[in-house]
Amino acid sequence: MRKICAIFVTLGFAASVNANGPAANFIEGRYYLAGDSNCRWYEIASPTRITCLDKDGEPNGHFRDALDDDQLRAFQNTPAGPSEEQLAYQRAYQAQQARELADQLRQTGDYFREIARTTQQAPVYTAPEAAPITQAEGETIICLRAGIYVRCRK
């Protein structure tokens, strides 16, 4: 049986490294300015903030908050904004992530359906019926016990 293991990594590399400055990077559903020398590597700090890391993966004291819609529009209208090539790369990357997630979900569903199918087909144990012990006058019945098993005789 296949085991499904999903590993979510919180470290990342800014997809578009720009020599002139940061670029808008789509990270977990939000855009952040990253890719410059102060924030080439990042770590998710909260749902709306990333922590910038140095080349050794240690926090360097820089934080970047997610861009709101107005900030993103203003950044994209500047010459240092993302190029069409960068946007195409980001869209392709997001589509690839969506396909991988869909595959993982499909595999997980298959795994649990297989568990449910094999559980439903498991044999049902029915305990055997035991004949009652009848004792005539003067007879002795001896029972021996070994763990959960008991054997009796006259």
UniProtKB/TrEMBL annotation:
Keywords: Signal. It comes from the Bacteria. Residues 1-19 form the signal peptide. This is DUF4124 domain-containing protein. It comes from Sphingorhabdus lacus.
